[in-house]
Amino acid sequence: MVKVDLEGCSSFVKDAEYQKYVDKALAALDVLENETGAGNDFLGWKHLPTRTPDSLISECEAIRDSWKAKGVDLVVVIGIGGSYLGAKCAVEALSHSFASRLSTVRNAPEVVFAGHNLSEEYAAELMDLMQERNVAAVVISKSGTTTEPAVAFRLIKQYIETRYGSSEAAERIVAVTDAHRGALKSLATQEGYRTFVIEDNVGGRFSVLTPVGILPIVLAGFDMRAMLRGAAEMEEATSRRDASNPAVEYAAMRNLLYDNGKKIEILVSYNPKLQYLGEWWKQLFGESEGKDGKGIFPASVSFTTDLHSMGQYIQEGERILMETVVTVEKSRRSVTISSDPQNLDGLNFLTGKHIEECNAMAELGTRLAHIDGGVPQLSVAIEKIDEYNLGSLFYFFEKSCGISAYILGVNPFNQPGVEAYKKNMFALLGKPGYEAQAEALHERLGK
Ligand code: PA5
Fold it and tell me: Which domains does the chain possess?
């Protein structure tokens, strides 16, 4: 269960001002709950935690078991943006840090990702890996037409067909896409792939609790039911129409700080397992709020690592920053610092302490230093990193994002700006239908 603490902002804002933003957040919550705001045909994510049928998870488990029976030890998940980041975040957060190098910890196939870039080297190296492993693939694209995953899938599909034959390939490939539209849907129907549907009313960056996230997370061996339980608790907690609603608290404060000149919000974690939470969160807030010339710029850091790279700027650079710290209260593993008779490193004062205690003091010390340096601190705490708490975090941030964007006055659920680069790329690559744009671009580039 997520807990929000705004004490680290108290020296930056007046209570009366905060109350005004709470009122704005409660009004925005009403718009979200009553489904009367912009983009209200994309609110299917709101009740996913409580309305996802258990049979969906069982279906994913059946695929996991059938692949296990074939000896599959590598699942390539193909997707980009919202069709990638949620699953990547969950797999990174929940996996052993050295899973791929430790034979003892794996009782599920390794899940790797593709189709989230256009790097030829990445594609070639993925092929190298596939040659050595027993491979299956999940291709995810809501539109079914996105270039990056389509390019990756063409390669991976051909590889699997060549190696295992067409009919076995159909057993080893699953598609997650729109119910009716898009090239991927047609291809999946023609090839006879098992298919999961992404409902029309759920946008990519809000889709982690649909088959987009559920299938890869189950395939990687994690407990999706616990994740949905954590999300369901937050579904309930964040629908409360009062100032103690954690999503209202968070959305109110970050908007107040934004209006007071804090234009950049940095999501901070002190556990490298949460690095991709930052990536997922950046897409969620960046794509939802960054429009009409407005929006907090979302950035992320992993401390204490990045205290040795970004710490200087955060402490003393331009004062346009706020930080949201994702605090993890308990470590799931225990390592204490031992005594050294020689004490040449001078660290004997730490003897017997858990490393996590040092991490907690680094977190507290940094928090105080950054407040002193003019950086407000919002805190979002979870008990530990597990499926339940990750589900809570996903839902908490999604709900906060909807409320926050409505306070800002933008439609949280569209992304018109993402199209601009695609049009130029298609024109430059000579896609049929883009001839006029190609001519204009070549003239502009002087070629
Ligand atoms: O949030 C979004 O809508 C986007 O980031 C999409 O998820 C991303 O562009 C991938 O789209 P698709 O799933 O249609 O391939």
Answer: 3-37+228-339+347-408 (3.40.50.10490), 45-222 (3.40.50.10490)
Contact present, 390 and 90 (Cβ < 8 Å): yes
- The residues of the chain scoring below 50 in pLDDT are none
Q: How many whole angstroms from its chain centre is CA 116?
A: 13
What's the CA angle centered on 110, arms 275 and 48, to 5 degrees? 65
Task: Specify the residue with its C-alpha closest to ligand 1, atom 5.
Answer: 81
Closest by alpha carbon to 310, among 274, 372, 271, 267?
Answer: 267
Is 78 a pocket residue for ligand 1 (Cβ < 6 Å)?
A: no
Strand partners of residue 113: 77
Is the C-beta atom of 211 inside 6 A of ligand 1? no
With a CB cutoff of 8 Å and minimum separation 6, the contacts of 112 are 74, 75, 76, 77, 126, 129
Q: What is the pLDDT of residues 79-129, one digit of tens each?
A: 999 999 999 999 999 999 998 888 775 679 999 999 999 999 999 999 999
At 28 the pLDDT is 98
Closest residue by Cα to atom 8, ligand 1, is: 81
Concerning whether 20 is annotated as a catalytic residue, the answer is no
Q: What does the pLDDT read at residue 419? A: 83
Which of the 8 DSSP states describes residue 303?
T
Is the C-beta atom of 287 inside 6 A of ligand 1? yes
Sheet with strand 194-197: strands edge to edge: 110-114, 74-78, 135-141, 173-177, 194-197
The pLDDT score that the predictor gives to residue 22 is: 98
Whether 308 is catalytic:
yes
pLDDT at residue 106, rounded to an integer = 67
Which residue from 231, 185, 213 is spatially nearest to 85, judged by alpha carbons?
213
pLDDT in the model for residue 145: 87
Options 422, 423, 435, 442, the catalytic residue: 422
Tell how far the Cα of 410 is from the centroid of ligand 1, in angstroms. Answer: 19
Task: Write down the residue that tokens 């700027």 correspond to.
Answer: 313
Query: Can you list the alpha helix ranges (DSSP code H) found in 106-202?
Result: 120-132, 147-164, 166-172, 183-191
Token pair listed for 242: 């009062």
Expressed in angstroms and rounded, the spacing between residue 267 Cα and the centre of ligand 1 is: 22
* Residue 81, ligand 1, Cβ within 6 A: yes
Pocket test for ligand 1, best of 41, 88, 141, 142 (most atoms within 8 A of CB): 142
Mutate to test the pocket of ligand 1, among 78, 146, 148, 178 (most ligand atoms within 8 A of CB): 146
Using a cut of 0.85, tell me whether the model's pTM lies above it. yes
